[in-house]
């Protein structure tokens, strides 16, 4: 492959990879979030960085925001924002460049861990679920 002509993946490219990766996650994991919006940004915003006490804009690969399906009432709460997974393109590309694995594997790993941490899954559970995507 001639790498001299290759551009880095764009926000849209990462969104496409993330949506494909999410669709391949085990039903058990996808059921936790039901409908989720995946949003790719270059970096986390200042408010997120301050709230999570990030030292640099490269500290965070992704973030899950939303409400667990078990915490929702039968009647939708007016104004409730949808479950969202934010993926941060530049930190993900940096992580990918410094580690083994494909970009798709890195994105799958971030998706599993963002959902898993939000819903209190153990590291062992997340590892098992991630292996089911391979």
Task: Provide a descriptive summary of the structure in words.
The protein has one domain: Zincin-like. Helices cover 46% and strands 12% of the residues. It is built from six helices and three strands; from the N terminus they run ααβαββααα. It has helices at 11-24, 27-33, 46-51, 89-98, 103-118, 123-131, and strands at 36-41, 62-65, 83-88. A three-stranded mixed sheet has the order 1-3-2. Helix 5 (103-118) packs antiparallel against helix 6 (123-131). The longest helix has 16 residues, at 103-118. The radius of gyration is 16 Å and the shape is globular. The mean pLDDT is 87.
Average pLDDT level: 87
Cα separation of the termini: 25 Å
Helix content: 40-55%
Low-confidence stretches: none
Largest sheet: 3 strands, mixed
Instruction: Summarize the helix and strand pattern as letters.
Output: HHEHEEHHH
- Note the total helix count: 6
What is the class in the CATH system? Alpha Beta
Query: What strand line-up does the widest sheet have?
Result: 1-3-2
User: What is the correct CATH architecture?
Assistant: 2-Layer Sandwich
Total separate domains: 1
Strand tally: 3
Shape: globular
Q: State the CATH topology.
A: Zincin-like
Structural class category = alpha+beta
Strand content: 5-15%
CA-atom Rg in angstroms = 16 Å
